[in-house]
Each structure stands twice: as structure tokens, then as C-alpha cells.
TrEMBL record:
Name of the molecule in the record: DMT family transporter
Chain coiled-coil ranges: none
Organism for this UniProt entry: Halomonas llamarensis
TM helices/strands, residue ranges: 29-46, 112-129, 135-152, 173-197, 203-223, 235-254, 260-280
Keyword field: Membrane, Transmembrane, Transmembrane helix
Domain EamA: 3-127
Keyword Ribonucleoprotein attached: no
Keyword Amino-acid biosynthesis: no
Length: 289
């Protein structure tokens, strides 16, 4: 749980950094490629191929390809179609996808996880629902593509990790995750990217460096490790905890307008859903996977 909380605090800056400094200014495919490439550089020196079988390496690469490669492409495109508040709003469905997919992959059905995930969606909607016009549907679908990729890859990682030794040194194998993302990000930039829209100043390069080394490199390693240490309900809820955290950062640093009453009310609903999920899990003796 501490991993998820820490990464939530780290990622709280990402929405505003992308929306303020990158969206519409830096080619989105290049931004994805650089983030993934920098993250890979952190873990490649530690890579020990013999720790995983060929099939396991391919599986971890596939998870990385979906979670970072495909998801990031959807995610960055969404900022070209929607405002930052709309992107935040449309991410609220991720907990529902996680609750359902986790049950499917682990061969069970836990209605209570779906209930707490829906509570988290309600809390996020209270915080970030704004009036939207009729031209938002394409952007909505693009964000849902990112949500489904992120949910599927988190659940897939949980399933993958559950079949491996608990003593496996993950820092020695996680490089495969980022190599899988590069398999998607590099051809996407070569085929669809705009080389004329590279970063034009030191601030943009600095933002991309932070997003690549810290948010992507450290963030996804710790987030996925945390995902294996909690139950599906907690993981689903924590996916929406990012919304109040992101809005708080946006309010404090960039002084954007935010309804503090809705922010507090929505955060309380998300916190209640997390407490309710933990209470139910402890009462019924559910394990983390």
C-alpha cells in the first residue's frame, strides 16, 4: 500500500506537467518514446536474462508494451482532444475495469470489489465533473483505450507475479517491461511522429526527463510491485486516488480553479471506499491476490 501511495504522490504532477508544457507543443509520439527510453536506461544495467524463461520474458515485455507503449499513445493523444479536467474526468472508470478484469483473470467473481470500485468512481466524478459539450466522444473513447490498457496490464502483472517466486529480484528483470514498451513506442514515432515538433527549450526537455526517469522509471516499477501486494479492490480504488492528488497539485502550483468543497467531498468518498474495502477484506479473510 505504501508503494501505491508514494507513486500517487509522484504521479500527481504528471497531468499538469503534460497539459501545461507538452500537449500541443511537443510531438506526443516522441514524448512517449523518450519517456520509455529513459526509463529503460535505468533498469537495463541490472538486467539478468537467466532469471526468467523465454516465455516469461515475452510475457513481461507484452505487459510493458500494453501498459506503457499502447497506453501512453492513447493517453498523450487524449490531451490533443480534451482539456486536462476532461482527461481527469474520463479516467474515473479505470477501477471498474480493474475489478472486472482481475476477477476474470483469477477465475472468480467478487461483487464487493465492483461496489467499492463504483464508489471510487462516484468520488472522482464528484471532484471532476464539469459540463461537457457534444464533441467530446472521440476524446472519451481515446481515454477509455488508455484506461483499459492500464487496467489490463496491472491485472496481468498481478497474475504474472503470482506465478513467480516471492524471492525474485524484480529490479533484475523489470528491464524487460520497458523493452516491451519500446517495441511499441519506437515504430509508433518512426511511422506517426512529427520530427519537426521536438522539444524547443530546456524546460520541455527537463519535464520529459523527469517524466521518463522518475514518473516512468521509478513510478511504474514501484506501482506494479505495489499492485502485487494489495487486493484487487484496493488497487482499483487507488487508481482514482490520483485525481484529488493531481487536482491539489494543480491548484497549489499552477493556481488553476478548483472547487475545494467538491475536492474534499470526493476525496472523502474515495477514502471511504478504501476503508470499506479493507474492512470487508479483513472480515472475510481475503488475500491480496
Amino acid at each position: 500500500m505504501s508503494y501505491l501511495v508514494g507513486v500517487t504522490a509522484l504521479w500527481a504532477f504528471s497531468f499538469s506537467l503534460i497539459g501545461v508544457y507538452l500537449a500541443g507543443q511537443v510531438d506526443s509520439y516522441f514524448a512517449v518514446l523518450l519517456r520509455v527510453g529513459l526509463a529503460a536506461l535505468i533498469f537495463l544495467p541490472f538486467l539478468r536474462p537467466r532469471l526468467l524463461s523465454g516465455k516469461q520474458r515475452v510475457t513481461l515485455m507484452a505487459i510493458g508494451a500494453v501498459q506503457l507503449g499502447v497506453m501512453y499513445i492513447f493517453f498523450y493523444q487524449s490531451f490533443l482532444l480534451l482539456s486536462v479536467p476532461e482527461v481527469l474526468l474520463f479516467t474515473i472508470f479505470t477501477p471498474v475495469y480493474i475489478a472486472l478484469l482481475d476477477d476474470i483473470l483469477f477465475g472468480r467473481f467478487t461483487p464487493f470489489y465492483l461496489l467499492t470500485a463504483l464508489l471510487a468512481v462516484l468520488g472522482a466524478a464528484v471532484i471532476r465533473y464539469d459540463s461537457i459539450d457534444g464533441s467530446f466522444w472521440v476524446g472519451f473513447l481515446v481515454v477509455q483505450g488508455a484506461n483499459i490498457c492500464f487496467a489490463l496490464s496491472q491485472v496481468g502483472y498481478r497474475r504474472f507475479a503470482a506465478e513467480l517466486s516471492t524471492s525474485l529480484p524484480w529490479h533484475n528483470v523489470f528491464g524487460w517491461f520497458f523493452l516491451g514498451a519500446l517495441v511499441v513506442a519506437l515504430p509508433a514515432f518512426l511511422l506517426l511522429g512529427n520530427a519537426a515538433a521536438l522539444p524547443s527549450n530546456g524546460l520541455q526537455w527537463g519535464v520529459l526527463a523527469w517524466l521518463g526517469l522518475a514518473a516512468s522509471g521509478g513510478g511504474y516499477f514501484l506501482w506494479n510491485r505495489g499492485a502485487t501486494m494489495v487486493d484487487a479492490g484496493t488497487l482499483a480504488i487507488m487508481n482514482n486516488a490520483l485525481i484529488p492528488a493531481g487536482l491539489l497539485v494543480n491548484l497549489v502550483i499552477w493556481n488553476r480553479e478548483a472547487d475545494l468543497i467538491r475536492l474534499v467531498l470526493g476525496a472523502l468518498i474515495i477514502a471511504f471506499s478504501l476503508w470499506l474495502n479493507n474492512w470487508w477484506r479483513e472480515r472475510h479473510g481475503y488475500k491480496t491476490a
